[in-house]
């Protein structure tokens, strides 16, 4: 009978330990889920903001190009030549953007994502 008395507190301690470990693991997974949601929200916000800014910049440049073409047409008599100048400027800007894509696009995006995911709290 004395062996049963010793076994019961040991069994209770093991059961309590198992329950504590289970709760700790659940809390760890919940924390991981919350951190993932936070990171995804930050990345989604960054993506959405970047897309909106790019669209606004593209419309701005489009209207500036048309304004230049019509100004050139009024000033020198040929809107077609103004549109051709704007098209050539777009080609030059496109080639420059392609050649400098790492510096202009990739590096800032990687740096921003790095700060989102690996920033010390």
UniProtKB/TrEMBL annotation:
The chain crosses the membrane at residues 46-71, 83-104. It comes from the Bacteria. Keywords: Membrane, Transmembrane, Transmembrane helix. This is Phage holin family protein. It comes from Candidatus [Bacteroides] periocalifornicus. The lineage of its organism: Bacteria, Pseudomonadati, Bacteroidota.
């Amino acid at each position: 009978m004395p062996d049963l008395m010793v076994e019961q507190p040991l069994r209770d301690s093991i059961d309590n330990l198992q329950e504590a470990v289970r709760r700790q693991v659940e809390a760890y997974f919940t924390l991981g889920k919350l951190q993932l949601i936070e990171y995804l929200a930050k990345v989604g916000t960054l993506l959405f903001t970047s897309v909106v800014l790019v669209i606004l910049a593209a419309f701005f440049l489009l209207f500036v190009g048309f304004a230049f073409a019509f100004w050139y047409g009024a000033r020198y008599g040929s809107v077609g030549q103004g549109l051709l100048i704007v098209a050539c400027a777009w080609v030059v800007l496109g080639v420059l953007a392609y050649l400098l894509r790492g510096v202009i696009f990739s590096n800032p995006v990687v740096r921003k994502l790095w700060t989102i995911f690996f920033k010390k709290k």
